[in-house]
Amino acid sequence: MEKTKLTPKDMIEEIVNSSEDDIKDFVQKASDNFVYGSDNCSEAIASSIAEFDQVPSLQYKAFVSGFGKGIAGKGETCGALLSGISFISKYAAEKGYNKKEIREFAQKFYDNFEQTFKGTLCKHLSGHDCDVPFDKDFDLHTCGVYIAFSTKYALEFAKKLKENQKN
Predict the structure, then answer these.
(1) What pTM, to 2 d.p., does this model score?
(2) Which of 54, 98, 117, 162 is most buried, most CB within 10 Å of its CB?
(3) What averages of pLDDT result for each successive group of 10 residues across the chain (167 residues)?
(4) How far apart are CA 124 and CA 87, in angstroms?
């Protein structure tokens, strides 16, 4: 029997459902902020993580907004990947990790992302011209997958750091 290929919408659902219970809603919201809202990929993650951290969303969105459509809209490194690295770095720095340790955390996430999705470039991952987001051949859920993945990873990382601090 041939295995059925998952649609991007199914993949988002799979990522959300595999998330820890207390972050599921934030992972789903991050994807929804992009798919159904007006946030770019990076802003969508920032908005959801800001809600998780209970801070105004503009505070986080301002730092990552320029990553949308792959670094300054050039289709290069995926904005969801860059935002994931940004929030992993933020959480690690707040817990007192040094630059080398933060770089190792970021590299682990980068490698995981690249292995999972077989690439890191926005224009290849999305498979479309980022200047035409509503092109008939493009499903916004495609990028929603990368957004959900990065949000899940960053929030689970933050929780892990917090739990390690308690022990």
Answers:
(1) 0.93
(2) 117
(3) 78 97 98 96 98 96 95 93 98 97 98 98 84 67 96 98 76
(4) 23
